[in-house]
Design a protein that fits this description.
The structure holds two protein chains of two kinds.
Chain A (H helix, E strand, L loop, with lengths): L5 E3 L2 E3 L3 E3 L20 E7 L11 E4 L2 E4 L8 H11 L7 E6 L3 H10 L7 E5 L16 H14 L4 E5 L6 H10 L4 E4 L3 E3 L2 E2 L4 E2 L6 E4 L4 H14 L4 E4 L5 H9 L4 E4 L1 H5 L3 H15 L37 H8 L2
Parallel strand pairs in A: 3-16, 4-7, 7-8, 8-9, 9-10, 10-15, 15-16
Antiparallel strand pairs in A: 1-2, 5-6, 6-14, 11-14, 12-13
Chain B lengths: L16 E12 L4 E7 L1 H6 L5 E5 L12 E4 L2 E3 L4 E7 L3 H7 L6 E8 L17 E6 L2 H14 L4 E7 L8 H6 L3 E6 L7 H13 L5 E5 L2 H14 L2 E5 L15 E6 L2 E6 H4 L2 E3 L7
Parallel strand pairs in B: 8-9, 8-11, 9-10, 11-12
Antiparallel strand pairs in B: 1-2, 1-7, 2-6, 3-4, 3-7, 5-6, 12-15, 13-14
Helix pairs in contact in B: 5-6
The chains are: A alpha/beta, B alpha/beta.
């Protein structure tokens, strides 16, 4: 019997698998018992009512999808009056996701959604800050630190900062989020991307640009999750292109305490159950008693013989005038 | 990822199932459309006219459809445990689907969405006669409504529109179900809105149009809305939109609808695909 429980700060989850925000809602309970999930992360709530972006809102690309849904939202009042009570029917911890246009608006919303029934708040700081020329908070460390401090002061619930992979130095943003009071990081949101239909010459998405997700992004986000996990002391939740248990185990070995699955659910609605079952089976096969033991348990890189790469190598200087030497220089 | 996915055991209480249905029939019915019949006993039990299935089209070296493809139900045989689809090969998904052979399996999620409803009686004990106005792929979506309405005792007239006579489908099936079928085509020059409007006026004058259903043409939707509004008729329209999850979670498949004085977005997958005729805004 494998112990699948993981701790995300003070919150204990029955297993490390949960949906990515925007890819889950109570409708999935029509397909399977969603209480089998580690947590229920629901669609982002914004401070304002929003109708969302023009259609088409999604497009297929090789190995994944683009989306620009635009967070349609009925506002926090609807969330408190309808959504939170709806999830009382489920036992898995409810994780609210919030987003706002300014730090103060963000903090006010964070306080509003800190209600009984909500176990943690995922703060989607990957959204544009209108007080910073529309740049996403998590693009840079300074606005990340500033908004996280305000959010921290606004709520006693665990705060998970969802980072953007569009940042240049995501480790610095990760450290700023930790310094600002985040209890965990979610790495990461979608990668800004686009595609064009060359027959119509139209962008595939109604909003032109959107977020890339799916298997295509996994190696990139895995690298970022690894970098973040090495840069902070708080738990990292990996999110990017996880389609099966093997992908999830990669993220955990890279240092993630838990994972979020999104795009895979659109292909197989019960994909998250496959991921849980596959993690359990892998642990059992590999003599792992507690899944939390594999978090960051990455073996040393490289071939056995190459551990001291370069240390005992004699660098031979090419002799002038030989053809081989020209090539040697040329490819350097 | 398709190869390793095992469909989990699903209790009877769940309304939406993911099944790997066996292909029983799969053939071209004309130059454009293909008929595919699958064995899906549990899903056939649950399926209703107007609902759809979300199909995982097979991937091969040449075609890699990523998302599932929504497809409306063409025929339901609940007793025989069979579902049929009628589709046109238009893009990556349907091209991949067309390659499936008899005996192969197709991963189907469903049934999904809200199907057709029948109009209230026009007088105590008197069933409201209905008119179905279908064009193109709308024929496939509206076909199971004929059986549903006939089974409930409604008089049914189906106006079936296509580009040319060889592309007309479901004419014999419609007549066999006890409905009147009126065929109109572009090549015969009798499918324009003026001609259809005259047909509708005639059917209404004869007391044969107490409710109106449409699918597959923006032009026919507008015409149906005008006639339904003028005569105060019950009506429904089945809509299409590109989908990702098919369950209502991703909000990709929205369309605009009239709600009182406001325009609202509704998800075609779970708030439709069948909507009140008067509320649809066309596309």
């Amino acid at each position: 019997m494998v112990d699948l429980t993981v701790d995300i700060g003070s919150l204990r989850l029955a297993n490390p698998v949960m949906p990515a925000s925007g890819t889950f809602a109570h409708e999935l309970a029509q397909v399977f018992d969603v209480d089998r999930l580690g947590a229920l992360v629901i669609k982002t709530v914004t401070a304002d009512k929003r109708i969302g972006n023009p259609t088409p809102r999604v497009a297929e690309v090789p190995g994944g999808m683009l989306n620009s849904i635009g967070i349609p939202c009925k506002g926090p009042e609807h969330f408190l009056a309808e959504t939170v009570p709806l999830y009382r029917a489920f036992n898995a911890p409810l994780v609210a996701s919030i987003s706002a246009n300014t730090p103060d608006e963000f903090a006010k919303l964070c306080e509003m959604v800190s209600v009984p029934g909500v176990s943690a708040i995922e703060v989607n700081i990957s959204c544009p800050n209108i007080e910073d020329d529309g740049r996403a908070f998590a693009m840079r460390p300074e606005p990340t630190l500033a908004v996280m401090r305000k959010l921290r002061a606004a709520s006693d619930l665990p705060l998970w900062a969802k980072l953007t992979p569009n940042a240049g130095e995501i480790q610095e943003v990760a450290q700023a989020a930790e310094a600002g009071g985040a209890d965990a990081l979610v790495v990461a949101n979608t990668i800004l991307a686009m595609s064009i239909d060359i027959t119509t010459r139209k962008p595939s998405l109604g909003k032109v640009m959107g977020g890339l997700s799916g298997p295509a992004v996994k190696p990139i986000i895995l690298r970022m999750a690894y970098q973040c996990a090495r840069s902070v002391t708080i738990p990292v939740i990996g999110c990017g292109g996880i389609m099966n248990a093997e992908d999830a185990i990669e993220y955990m070995l890279a240092g993630c305490s838990a994972v979020q699955v999104g795009t895979a659910t659109f292909i197989h609605p019960s994909a998250m159950l496959d991921v849980i079952a596959g993690i359990e089976a892998w642990c059992a096969q590999n003599g792992v008693a507690r899944v939390s033991d594999i978090v960051g348990d990455l073996a040393e890189a490289g071939d056995e013989g190459a551990r001291n790469w370069g240390a005992d190598m004699v660098t031979e200087k090419p002799k002038a005038g030989k053809a081989g030497a020209i090539n040697w220089e040329g490819v350097a | 990822m398709q190869a390793v996915h095992a469909v989990p055991p699903q209790p009877d209480s769940l309304p939406v199932l993911e099944e790997r249905a066996e292909i029983l029939r799969h053939e071209a019915v004309n130059g454009e459309y293909r008929l595919m019949q699958v064995a899906a006993p549990d899903q056939a039990q649950r399926a209703r006219a107007g609902q759809f299935f979300h199909l995982l089209c097979p991937q091969d070296d040449a075609l890699k459809p990523f998302f599932r493809r929504p497809m409306s139900i063409y025929a339901i045989d609940a007793q025989g445990g069979r579902i049929s689809f009628l589709y046109k090969v238009t893009g990556t998904g349907t091209k991949a689907l067309a390659k499936l052979g008899i005996g192969e399996r197709l991963d189907m999620l469903g049934p999904l969405g809200i199907g057709f409803s029948l109009p209230p009686d026009e007088a105590p004990g008197r069933k409201t006669p209905i008119v179905i106005l279908a064009r193109g792929v709308g024929l496939a979506t509206l076909a199971p409504l004929v059986g549903l309405a006939r089974g409930a005792g409604h008089d049914v007239t189906a106006i079936l529109s296509a580009r040319s006579p060889d592309l007309l489908m479901s004419v014999e099936e419609t007549r066999a179900a006890g409905a009147q079928a009126i065929t109109i085509t572009d090549s015969q020059g009798n499918s324009d809105t003026g001609h259809v409007a005259a047909l509708l006026d005639d059917l209404h004058a004869k007391g044969r149009m107490g409710a109106l259903y449409t699918c597959g043409s923006n032009r026919l939707l507008k015409l149906a809305q005008e006639h339904a509004a003028r005569h105060g008729l019950f009506g429904e329209v089945a809509m299409e939109q590109q989908m990702a999850c098919g369950l209502g979670m991703c909000f990709c498949c929205v369309r605009a609808f009239r709600e009182g004085d406001a325009t609202v977005h509704r998800r075609v997958c779970c708030e439709g695909p069948v909507f009140p005729l008067e509320e649809a805004l066309g596309w």
